[in-house]
Amino acid sequence: MKEVLLIIDFGSQYTQLIARRVRELNVCSKIIPYNKFQDLPQDIKGVILSGSPCSVNDFDSPSIKLEIIRKKIPLLALCYGAQLISHKLGGKVAASDSREYGRSQLSVTSKNVLFSQVEDQSQVWMSHGDTILELPPNMTINASTDDVEVAAFSINNEDTFGLQFHPEVYHTSCGTQILKNFLVDICHFSQNWTSDSFIESAIYNLKQEIGNEKVLMALSGGVDSTVAAVLLHQAIGENLLCVFVDNGLLRKNEYLAVLEAYKTLGLNIKGVDASVQFLDNLSGVSDPEKKRKIIGGTFIDVFESFSKDYLDIKWLGQGTIYPDVIESISGTGGPSETIKSHHNVGGLPEKMNLKVIEPLRSLFKDEVRRVGLALNINKEIIQRHPFPGPGLAIRIMGDITYKKVSILQDVDAIFINALKTHDLYDSVWQAGAILLSDNSVGVMGDGRTYERVVALRAVASTDGMTADWVHLPYDFLSKVSNDIINKVKGVNRVVYDISSKPPATIEWE
Predict the structure, then answer these.
(1) Catalytic residue from among 3, 100, 168, 254
(2) CA neighbours closer than 13 Å in the CB half-sphere of residue 399
(3) N or C: which end of the chain has fewer CB within 10 A?
(4) pTM confidence score
(5) Are 323 and 331 a contacting pair, CB within 8 Å?
(6) Euclidean distance between the first and the last CA atom of the chain, given in angstroms as a whole number
Protein backbone atom coordinates (compact mmCIF):
# COMPACT_ATOMS: atom_id res chain seq x y z
CA MET A 1 0.00 0.00 0.00
CA LYS A 2 1.21 3.51 -0.80
CA GLU A 3 2.47 5.43 2.25
CA VAL A 4 1.60 9.14 2.42
CA LEU A 5 2.23 11.93 4.91
CA LEU A 6 -0.59 14.47 5.00
CA ILE A 7 0.44 18.12 5.42
CA ILE A 8 -2.42 20.43 6.37
CA ASP A 9 -1.73 23.97 5.20
CA PHE A 10 -2.85 26.99 7.22
CA GLY A 11 -1.18 29.42 4.80
CA SER A 12 2.46 29.28 5.87
CA GLN A 13 5.23 30.50 3.55
CA TYR A 14 7.06 27.32 4.61
CA THR A 15 4.42 24.67 3.84
CA GLN A 16 6.09 23.36 0.69
CA LEU A 17 9.41 23.52 2.52
CA ILE A 18 7.96 20.94 4.91
CA ALA A 19 7.09 18.74 1.93
CA ARG A 20 10.54 19.26 0.49
CA ARG A 21 12.26 18.14 3.73
CA VAL A 22 9.94 15.14 3.83
CA ARG A 23 10.91 14.23 0.25
CA GLU A 24 14.58 14.49 1.23
CA LEU A 25 13.83 11.72 3.70
CA ASN A 26 12.31 9.66 0.85
CA VAL A 27 8.74 9.96 2.07
CA CYS A 28 5.78 10.83 -0.15
CA SER A 29 3.57 13.69 1.06
CA LYS A 30 0.31 15.35 0.11
CA ILE A 31 -0.65 18.94 0.96
CA ILE A 32 -4.24 20.10 1.38
CA PRO A 33 -5.58 23.44 2.66
CA TYR A 34 -7.14 23.30 6.12
CA ASN A 35 -10.63 24.06 4.76
CA LYS A 36 -10.54 20.95 2.54
CA PHE A 37 -9.66 18.57 5.39
CA GLN A 38 -12.61 16.38 6.37
CA ASP A 39 -11.28 12.89 6.98
CA LEU A 40 -8.18 10.68 6.87
CA PRO A 41 -7.67 8.74 3.63
CA GLN A 42 -6.61 5.13 4.10
CA ASP A 43 -3.02 5.60 2.92
CA ILE A 44 -2.17 8.40 5.41
CA LYS A 45 0.39 7.28 8.03
CA GLY A 46 1.03 10.66 9.70
CA VAL A 47 -0.05 14.31 9.72
CA ILE A 48 1.87 17.59 10.01
CA LEU A 49 0.11 20.88 10.70
CA SER A 50 1.79 23.94 9.14
CA GLY A 51 2.34 27.45 10.41
CA SER A 52 0.19 30.42 9.39
CA PRO A 53 0.25 34.24 9.12
CA CYS A 54 -2.90 34.21 11.28
CA SER A 55 -3.42 34.19 15.05
CA VAL A 56 -5.46 31.51 16.80
CA ASN A 57 -7.15 34.35 18.71
CA ASP A 58 -8.55 35.91 15.53
CA PHE A 59 -12.31 35.59 15.15
CA ASP A 60 -12.05 33.78 11.82
CA SER A 61 -8.73 32.01 12.38
CA PRO A 62 -8.24 28.77 10.36
CA SER A 63 -9.01 25.59 12.25
CA ILE A 64 -9.67 21.86 11.85
CA LYS A 65 -11.29 19.09 13.89
CA LEU A 66 -8.33 17.64 15.76
CA GLU A 67 -10.33 14.63 16.92
CA ILE A 68 -10.22 13.27 13.36
CA ILE A 69 -6.44 12.81 13.78
CA ARG A 70 -5.59 12.54 17.47
CA LYS A 71 -5.10 9.04 18.89
CA LYS A 72 -5.58 7.55 15.41
CA ILE A 73 -2.28 8.39 13.69
CA PRO A 74 0.81 10.42 14.73
CA LEU A 75 0.46 14.22 14.58
CA LEU A 76 3.24 16.84 14.49
CA ALA A 77 2.11 20.49 14.76
CA LEU A 78 4.45 23.36 13.81
CA CYS A 79 4.24 26.99 14.98
CA TYR A 80 0.60 28.02 14.40
CA GLY A 81 -0.36 24.34 14.36
CA ALA A 82 1.13 23.89 17.84
CA GLN A 83 -0.66 27.00 19.07
CA LEU A 84 -3.92 25.71 17.60
CA ILE A 85 -3.68 22.43 19.53
CA SER A 86 -2.93 24.25 22.78
CA HIS A 87 -5.71 26.81 22.19
CA LYS A 88 -8.40 24.25 21.30
CA LEU A 89 -7.56 22.04 24.29
CA GLY A 90 -7.79 24.87 26.83
CA GLY A 91 -4.28 26.36 26.90
CA LYS A 92 -3.44 30.06 26.71
CA VAL A 93 -1.97 31.64 23.56
CA ALA A 94 -1.26 35.37 23.43
CA ALA A 95 0.70 37.91 21.42
CA SER A 96 4.41 38.04 22.24
CA ASP A 97 5.90 41.25 23.66
CA SER A 98 7.97 41.40 20.47
CA ARG A 99 7.82 39.35 17.27
CA GLU A 100 10.17 36.38 17.58
CA TYR A 101 11.89 35.90 14.24
CA GLY A 102 15.23 34.30 13.48
CA ARG A 103 17.72 32.08 15.26
CA SER A 104 17.22 30.88 18.84
CA GLN A 105 19.00 28.39 21.07
CA LEU A 106 16.86 25.38 21.98
CA SER A 107 17.27 23.59 25.32
CA VAL A 108 15.78 20.09 25.43
CA THR A 109 14.31 19.64 28.90
CA SER A 110 12.35 16.38 28.57
CA LYS A 111 13.46 13.89 25.94
CA ASN A 112 11.10 11.65 24.01
CA VAL A 113 11.26 9.77 20.70
CA LEU A 114 10.86 13.02 18.73
CA PHE A 115 14.10 14.37 20.22
CA SER A 116 16.12 11.16 19.92
CA GLN A 117 19.73 11.92 18.84
CA VAL A 118 19.04 15.67 19.16
CA GLU A 119 21.61 17.56 21.22
CA ASP A 120 20.37 19.19 24.40
CA GLN A 121 21.47 22.58 22.98
CA SER A 122 20.62 23.24 19.30
CA GLN A 123 19.99 26.20 17.01
CA VAL A 124 16.40 26.57 15.80
CA TRP A 125 14.51 29.08 13.64
CA MET A 126 11.57 31.03 15.08
CA SER A 127 8.96 32.97 13.11
CA HIS A 128 5.87 33.86 15.15
CA GLY A 129 3.98 36.76 16.69
CA ASP A 130 2.00 34.71 19.25
CA THR A 131 3.38 32.38 21.89
CA ILE A 132 1.99 29.63 24.14
CA LEU A 133 1.83 30.98 27.70
CA GLU A 134 0.08 28.03 29.35
CA LEU A 135 -0.31 24.43 28.23
CA PRO A 136 -3.52 22.45 28.82
CA PRO A 137 -3.46 19.57 31.33
CA ASN A 138 -1.96 16.26 30.23
CA MET A 139 0.85 17.91 28.27
CA THR A 140 4.62 17.96 28.84
CA ILE A 141 7.06 20.70 27.88
CA ASN A 142 9.90 19.04 25.99
CA ALA A 143 12.07 22.06 25.09
CA SER A 144 12.45 25.78 25.74
CA THR A 145 14.49 28.75 24.57
CA ASP A 146 15.62 31.84 26.45
CA ASP A 147 12.52 33.69 25.22
CA VAL A 148 9.99 30.89 24.79
CA GLU A 149 9.20 28.46 27.60
CA VAL A 150 6.97 26.24 25.47
CA ALA A 151 9.20 25.68 22.45
CA ALA A 152 8.14 22.03 22.18
CA PHE A 153 5.50 19.92 23.87
CA SER A 154 3.86 16.49 23.67
CA ILE A 155 0.50 15.15 24.79
CA ASN A 156 0.97 12.40 27.35
CA ASN A 157 0.24 8.85 26.20
CA GLU A 158 -0.38 9.70 22.55
CA ASP A 159 1.73 10.45 19.47
CA THR A 160 0.87 14.14 19.28
CA PHE A 161 3.67 16.70 19.32
CA GLY A 162 3.93 20.48 18.99
CA LEU A 163 6.93 22.63 18.03
CA GLN A 164 6.94 26.43 18.25
CA PHE A 165 9.99 26.53 15.95
CA HIS A 166 10.34 25.45 12.30
CA PRO A 167 12.26 22.16 11.81
CA GLU A 168 11.74 22.44 8.04
CA VAL A 169 13.94 25.56 7.77
CA TYR A 170 17.61 25.09 6.94
CA HIS A 171 18.71 27.25 9.91
CA THR A 172 17.24 24.74 12.39
CA SER A 173 20.29 22.53 12.83
CA CYS A 174 18.38 19.61 14.35
CA GLY A 175 15.38 19.93 12.00
CA THR A 176 16.15 17.00 9.71
CA GLN A 177 16.76 14.69 12.66
CA ILE A 178 13.49 15.71 14.32
CA LEU A 179 11.53 15.13 11.11
CA LYS A 180 13.27 11.79 10.58
CA ASN A 181 12.40 10.75 14.13
CA PHE A 182 8.75 11.62 13.49
CA LEU A 183 8.51 9.99 10.06
CA VAL A 184 10.56 6.86 10.65
CA ASP A 185 10.46 6.09 14.38
CA ILE A 186 6.95 7.36 15.14
CA CYS A 187 5.02 7.04 11.84
CA HIS A 188 7.10 4.06 10.59
CA PHE A 189 7.47 5.19 6.96
CA SER A 190 9.62 2.85 4.85
CA GLN A 191 11.41 5.73 3.02
CA ASN A 192 10.94 4.47 -0.56
CA TRP A 193 10.09 7.77 -2.32
CA THR A 194 12.70 9.00 -4.90
CA SER A 195 13.11 11.30 -7.92
CA ASP A 196 12.21 8.32 -10.10
CA SER A 197 9.03 7.95 -8.07
CA PHE A 198 8.20 11.60 -8.74
CA ILE A 199 8.83 11.18 -12.48
CA GLU A 200 6.64 8.07 -12.66
CA SER A 201 3.85 9.78 -10.70
CA ALA A 202 4.13 13.06 -12.66
CA ILE A 203 3.96 11.33 -16.05
CA TYR A 204 0.95 9.28 -14.96
CA ASN A 205 -0.86 12.39 -13.66
CA LEU A 206 -0.07 14.37 -16.82
CA LYS A 207 -1.49 11.59 -18.99
CA GLN A 208 -4.64 11.48 -16.88
CA GLU A 209 -5.15 15.26 -16.88
CA ILE A 210 -4.26 16.04 -20.50
CA GLY A 211 -5.43 12.90 -22.25
CA ASN A 212 -5.12 13.25 -26.02
CA GLU A 213 -5.23 17.06 -26.03
CA LYS A 214 -2.29 19.17 -27.22
CA VAL A 215 -0.03 21.38 -25.11
CA LEU A 216 1.85 24.55 -26.05
CA MET A 217 4.90 24.68 -23.79
CA ALA A 218 6.59 27.97 -22.95
CA LEU A 219 10.36 27.46 -22.82
CA SER A 220 12.71 29.97 -21.19
CA GLY A 221 16.05 28.25 -21.72
CA GLY A 222 16.35 27.54 -18.01
CA VAL A 223 16.27 24.31 -16.07
CA ASP A 224 12.64 24.61 -14.86
CA SER A 225 10.90 24.91 -18.23
CA THR A 226 13.29 22.40 -19.79
CA VAL A 227 12.57 19.71 -17.19
CA ALA A 228 8.83 20.46 -17.40
CA ALA A 229 8.98 20.12 -21.19
CA VAL A 230 10.79 16.78 -21.07
CA LEU A 231 8.24 15.45 -18.55
CA LEU A 232 5.41 16.56 -20.80
CA HIS A 233 7.13 15.07 -23.83
CA GLN A 234 7.44 11.71 -22.10
CA ALA A 235 3.77 11.89 -21.11
CA ILE A 236 2.14 13.07 -24.35
CA GLY A 237 4.84 12.79 -27.04
CA GLU A 238 4.00 14.54 -30.32
CA ASN A 239 1.06 16.36 -28.71
CA LEU A 240 3.60 18.77 -27.19
CA LEU A 241 4.65 21.88 -29.14
CA CYS A 242 7.34 24.03 -27.53
CA VAL A 243 7.87 27.73 -28.17
CA PHE A 244 10.80 29.89 -27.08
CA VAL A 245 9.98 33.60 -27.05
CA ASP A 246 12.58 36.34 -27.35
CA ASN A 247 11.10 39.04 -25.13
CA GLY A 248 14.01 41.41 -25.72
CA LEU A 249 15.01 40.98 -22.09
CA LEU A 250 17.20 37.89 -22.37
CA ARG A 251 20.93 37.73 -21.75
CA LYS A 252 23.25 38.75 -24.57
CA ASN A 253 22.96 36.41 -27.61
CA GLU A 254 20.84 34.01 -25.55
CA TYR A 255 17.98 33.58 -28.03
CA LEU A 256 19.99 31.78 -30.71
CA ALA A 257 22.17 29.93 -28.18
CA VAL A 258 19.14 28.44 -26.42
CA LEU A 259 17.47 27.36 -29.67
CA GLU A 260 20.69 25.57 -30.61
CA ALA A 261 20.93 23.84 -27.21
CA TYR A 262 17.36 22.52 -27.43
CA LYS A 263 18.08 20.67 -30.68
CA THR A 264 19.71 17.89 -28.63
CA LEU A 265 16.52 17.17 -26.62
CA GLY A 266 14.35 15.98 -29.48
CA LEU A 267 11.62 18.50 -28.68
CA ASN A 268 9.38 20.05 -31.32
CA ILE A 269 10.34 23.70 -30.79
CA LYS A 270 9.61 26.98 -32.57
CA GLY A 271 11.28 30.35 -31.92
CA VAL A 272 9.33 33.62 -31.83
CA ASP A 273 11.02 37.05 -31.81
CA ALA A 274 8.58 39.30 -29.93
CA SER A 275 11.19 41.68 -28.49
CA VAL A 276 9.67 44.81 -30.05
CA GLN A 277 6.21 43.92 -28.72
CA PHE A 278 7.49 43.44 -25.15
CA LEU A 279 9.68 46.53 -25.03
CA ASP A 280 6.97 48.72 -26.55
CA ASN A 281 4.45 47.49 -23.96
CA LEU A 282 6.93 48.26 -21.16
CA SER A 283 7.76 51.75 -22.43
CA GLY A 284 7.49 54.34 -19.66
CA VAL A 285 6.60 51.78 -16.94
CA SER A 286 8.69 51.93 -13.74
CA ASP A 287 6.60 50.12 -11.11
CA PRO A 288 7.95 46.56 -10.57
CA GLU A 289 4.53 44.96 -10.15
CA LYS A 290 3.23 46.64 -13.32
CA LYS A 291 6.28 45.40 -15.21
CA ARG A 292 5.60 41.84 -14.10
CA LYS A 293 1.91 42.04 -15.00
CA ILE A 294 2.67 43.55 -18.42
CA ILE A 295 5.25 40.86 -19.16
CA GLY A 296 2.87 38.09 -18.05
CA GLY A 297 0.08 39.54 -20.17
CA THR A 298 2.33 39.99 -23.21
CA PHE A 299 3.57 36.41 -22.95
CA ILE A 300 -0.03 35.22 -23.03
CA ASP A 301 -0.79 37.49 -26.00
CA VAL A 302 2.19 36.06 -27.87
CA PHE A 303 1.25 32.47 -27.05
CA GLU A 304 -2.38 33.04 -28.04
CA SER A 305 -1.35 34.65 -31.31
CA PHE A 306 1.08 31.82 -32.00
CA SER A 307 -1.52 29.16 -31.18
CA LYS A 308 -4.00 30.51 -33.75
CA ASP A 309 -2.13 28.44 -36.29
CA TYR A 310 -2.66 25.41 -34.06
CA LEU A 311 -6.37 25.53 -33.23
CA ASP A 312 -6.36 22.12 -31.55
CA ILE A 313 -4.04 23.27 -28.73
CA LYS A 314 -5.90 23.32 -25.39
CA TRP A 315 -3.15 23.73 -22.78
CA LEU A 316 -0.32 26.14 -21.94
CA GLY A 317 2.61 24.43 -20.20
CA GLN A 318 4.84 26.41 -17.81
CA GLY A 319 7.96 25.69 -15.77
CA THR A 320 6.59 27.26 -12.60
CA ILE A 321 8.27 26.00 -9.41
CA TYR A 322 7.31 26.42 -5.79
CA PRO A 323 9.36 29.53 -4.79
CA ASP A 324 7.59 31.34 -7.65
CA VAL A 325 4.22 30.24 -6.32
CA ILE A 326 4.62 30.96 -2.62
CA GLU A 327 5.85 34.54 -3.16
CA SER A 328 2.82 35.23 -5.36
CA ILE A 329 -0.11 33.24 -3.97
CA SER A 330 -0.80 30.35 -1.63
CA GLY A 331 0.40 27.12 -3.17
CA THR A 332 -2.58 25.20 -1.78
CA GLY A 333 -5.33 27.73 -1.26
CA GLY A 334 -4.32 28.62 2.29
CA PRO A 335 -4.29 32.24 3.59
CA SER A 336 -0.65 33.11 2.81
CA GLU A 337 0.85 36.57 2.22
CA THR A 338 1.83 37.89 -1.24
CA ILE A 339 5.50 38.91 -1.43
CA LYS A 340 5.66 39.78 -5.14
CA SER A 341 4.01 38.67 -8.36
CA HIS A 342 5.74 36.25 -10.71
CA HIS A 343 4.87 36.62 -14.37
CA ASN A 344 3.89 32.96 -14.66
CA VAL A 345 1.89 32.72 -11.42
CA GLY A 346 -1.63 34.04 -11.01
CA GLY A 347 -2.82 37.30 -12.46
CA LEU A 348 -3.12 35.81 -15.96
CA PRO A 349 -5.68 37.59 -18.14
CA GLU A 350 -9.20 36.17 -18.05
CA LYS A 351 -9.22 36.22 -21.86
CA MET A 352 -6.61 33.43 -21.93
CA ASN A 353 -8.15 30.61 -23.91
CA LEU A 354 -5.68 27.94 -22.80
CA LYS A 355 -5.72 25.87 -19.65
CA VAL A 356 -2.48 25.96 -17.64
CA ILE A 357 -0.42 22.86 -16.78
CA GLU A 358 2.59 23.14 -14.40
CA PRO A 359 4.28 19.76 -13.74
CA LEU A 360 6.90 21.19 -11.31
CA ARG A 361 4.69 23.49 -9.27
CA SER A 362 5.41 21.70 -5.99
CA LEU A 363 9.21 21.37 -6.38
CA PHE A 364 12.19 23.50 -5.41
CA LYS A 365 15.07 24.35 -7.74
CA ASP A 366 17.50 21.72 -6.45
CA GLU A 367 14.77 19.08 -6.65
CA VAL A 368 14.05 20.09 -10.25
CA ARG A 369 17.74 19.63 -11.02
CA ARG A 370 17.72 16.14 -9.52
CA VAL A 371 14.66 15.24 -11.58
CA GLY A 372 16.38 16.66 -14.67
CA LEU A 373 19.44 14.49 -14.09
CA ALA A 374 17.18 11.46 -13.60
CA LEU A 375 15.63 12.32 -16.98
CA ASN A 376 19.17 12.34 -18.52
CA ILE A 377 19.00 16.00 -19.59
CA ASN A 378 22.35 17.57 -20.52
CA LYS A 379 24.20 18.72 -17.39
CA GLU A 380 25.04 22.09 -18.98
CA ILE A 381 21.32 22.89 -19.08
CA ILE A 382 20.61 21.44 -15.63
CA GLN A 383 23.42 23.39 -13.95
CA ARG A 384 22.49 26.76 -15.47
CA HIS A 385 21.87 29.53 -12.97
CA PRO A 386 18.24 30.51 -12.44
CA PHE A 387 17.18 33.46 -14.58
CA PRO A 388 13.95 35.36 -13.82
CA GLY A 389 11.02 34.89 -16.18
CA PRO A 390 10.60 38.69 -16.61
CA GLY A 391 14.29 38.74 -17.58
CA LEU A 392 16.31 41.92 -17.35
CA ALA A 393 13.15 43.99 -16.82
CA ILE A 394 13.35 43.38 -13.08
CA ARG A 395 17.09 44.04 -13.05
CA ILE A 396 16.63 47.51 -14.53
CA MET A 397 15.47 49.94 -11.90
CA GLY A 398 12.90 52.33 -13.31
CA ASP A 399 11.58 52.39 -16.87
CA ILE A 400 12.81 50.09 -19.64
CA THR A 401 14.51 51.37 -22.79
CA TYR A 402 16.44 49.67 -25.58
CA LYS A 403 19.61 51.47 -24.49
CA LYS A 404 19.30 50.34 -20.87
CA VAL A 405 18.73 46.74 -21.95
CA SER A 406 21.81 46.88 -24.18
CA ILE A 407 23.97 48.29 -21.37
CA LEU A 408 22.83 45.66 -18.89
CA GLN A 409 23.28 42.80 -21.37
CA ASP A 410 26.91 43.85 -21.88
CA VAL A 411 27.53 44.18 -18.13
CA ASP A 412 25.86 40.84 -17.38
CA ALA A 413 27.87 39.07 -20.10
CA ILE A 414 31.16 40.30 -18.65
CA PHE A 415 30.16 39.20 -15.12
CA ILE A 416 28.80 35.73 -16.04
CA ASN A 417 31.65 34.94 -18.44
CA ALA A 418 34.17 35.97 -15.79
CA LEU A 419 32.56 33.60 -13.27
CA LYS A 420 32.94 30.76 -15.78
CA THR A 421 36.51 31.70 -16.74
CA HIS A 422 37.62 31.81 -13.09
CA ASP A 423 35.82 28.51 -12.20
CA LEU A 424 33.41 30.28 -9.86
CA TYR A 425 30.18 29.71 -11.78
CA ASP A 426 29.32 26.34 -10.22
CA SER A 427 29.99 27.61 -6.68
CA VAL A 428 27.33 30.31 -7.14
CA TRP A 429 23.60 29.46 -7.13
CA GLN A 430 22.54 32.58 -9.02
CA ALA A 431 24.33 35.65 -10.32
CA GLY A 432 23.43 38.72 -12.31
CA ALA A 433 23.80 42.46 -12.68
CA ILE A 434 21.36 45.24 -11.83
CA LEU A 435 21.21 48.62 -13.56
CA LEU A 436 20.36 51.28 -10.98
CA SER A 437 18.07 54.19 -11.75
CA ASP A 438 20.52 56.91 -10.66
CA ASN A 439 23.70 58.20 -12.26
CA SER A 440 26.91 58.90 -10.40
CA VAL A 441 29.73 61.36 -10.95
CA GLY A 442 33.01 59.90 -12.16
CA VAL A 443 36.23 60.93 -13.86
CA MET A 444 37.72 59.44 -17.01
CA GLY A 445 40.66 60.86 -18.92
CA ASP A 446 40.73 63.95 -16.70
CA GLY A 447 37.11 64.64 -17.67
CA ARG A 448 33.91 64.50 -15.65
CA THR A 449 31.41 61.72 -16.33
CA TYR A 450 27.85 61.34 -15.12
CA GLU A 451 26.88 57.77 -15.93
CA ARG A 452 25.13 54.66 -14.71
CA VAL A 453 25.76 52.59 -11.60
CA VAL A 454 25.50 48.80 -11.79
CA ALA A 455 25.26 46.37 -8.89
CA LEU A 456 26.58 42.82 -9.10
CA ARG A 457 24.76 40.09 -7.18
CA ALA A 458 25.86 36.52 -6.50
CA VAL A 459 24.10 34.29 -3.96
CA ALA A 460 24.38 30.81 -2.52
CA SER A 461 21.20 28.84 -1.88
CA THR A 462 19.65 25.40 -2.16
CA ASP A 463 16.01 26.18 -2.88
CA GLY A 464 15.67 29.95 -3.38
CA MET A 465 13.62 30.35 -0.20
CA THR A 466 16.67 31.62 1.67
CA ALA A 467 19.99 32.81 0.25
CA ASP A 468 23.26 34.34 1.35
CA TRP A 469 25.63 36.54 -0.63
CA VAL A 470 28.75 34.85 -1.96
CA HIS A 471 32.16 36.06 -0.79
CA LEU A 472 33.71 36.38 -4.24
CA PRO A 473 37.50 37.06 -4.19
CA TYR A 474 38.44 40.74 -4.08
CA ASP A 475 40.84 40.33 -7.00
CA PHE A 476 38.05 38.84 -9.08
CA LEU A 477 35.62 41.65 -8.23
CA SER A 478 38.31 44.22 -8.95
CA LYS A 479 38.96 42.74 -12.41
CA VAL A 480 35.26 42.47 -13.27
CA SER A 481 34.61 46.04 -12.13
CA ASN A 482 37.50 47.33 -14.20
CA ASP A 483 36.38 45.39 -17.29
CA ILE A 484 32.80 46.65 -16.99
CA ILE A 485 33.75 50.31 -16.60
CA ASN A 486 36.30 50.16 -19.42
CA LYS A 487 34.25 48.13 -21.89
CA VAL A 488 30.63 49.21 -21.32
CA LYS A 489 29.98 52.76 -22.41
CA GLY A 490 27.58 54.50 -20.05
CA VAL A 491 28.74 52.86 -16.79
CA ASN A 492 31.22 54.50 -14.43
CA ARG A 493 30.60 52.75 -11.10
CA VAL A 494 30.21 49.11 -9.96
CA VAL A 495 28.98 47.99 -6.51
CA TYR A 496 28.53 44.52 -5.00
CA ASP A 497 25.30 43.52 -3.21
CA ILE A 498 25.97 41.85 0.17
CA SER A 499 22.32 41.43 1.24
CA SER A 500 20.92 38.06 2.28
CA LYS A 501 17.42 36.63 1.76
CA PRO A 502 15.67 37.37 4.02
CA PRO A 503 15.33 40.30 4.40
CA ALA A 504 16.21 41.08 0.76
CA THR A 505 14.89 39.02 -2.14
CA ILE A 506 17.39 37.63 -4.64
CA GLU A 507 16.16 39.90 -7.41
CA TRP A 508 15.89 43.65 -6.81
CA GLU A 509 12.33 43.93 -8.12
Answers:
(1) 168
(2) 9
(3) N
(4) 0.66
(5) no
(6) 46
The reply to whether 187 belongs to the active site is: no
Contact 302/219 with Cβ under 8 angstroms? no
| Active-site annotation holds for 166 | yes
- Alpha carbon separation from 318 to 44, 97, 215, 393, 463 (Å, rounded): 30, 44, 10, 19, 19
Which amino acid, 229? A
**Of 87, 128, 166, 342, which residue is the catalytic one?**
166
Instruction: List 495's β-bridge partners, or say none.
Output: 455
pLDDT less than 50: residues of the chain: 1, 327-349
pLDDT at 98: 56
Measure Cα distances from 301 to 298, 304, 311, 350 in Å: 5, 5, 15, 12
Question: Among residues 178, 183, 199, which one has the least CA distance to residue 363?
Answer: 199
For residue 206, what are the contacts with CB-CB under 8 A and spacing of at least 6?
A: 231, 232, 235, 236, 357, 359
Catalytic annotation on 54? no
453 and 434 Cβ atoms separated by less than 8 Å: no
Amino acid (1-letter code) at residue 55 = S
Q: What is the pLDDT of residue 446?
A: 67
Residue 152: helix, strand or coil by DSSP?
Answer: strand
Cα–Cα dist 68/199, whole Å: 32
DSSP secondary structure string for all residues of 235-258? HHGGGEEEEEEE-S-SSTTHHHHH
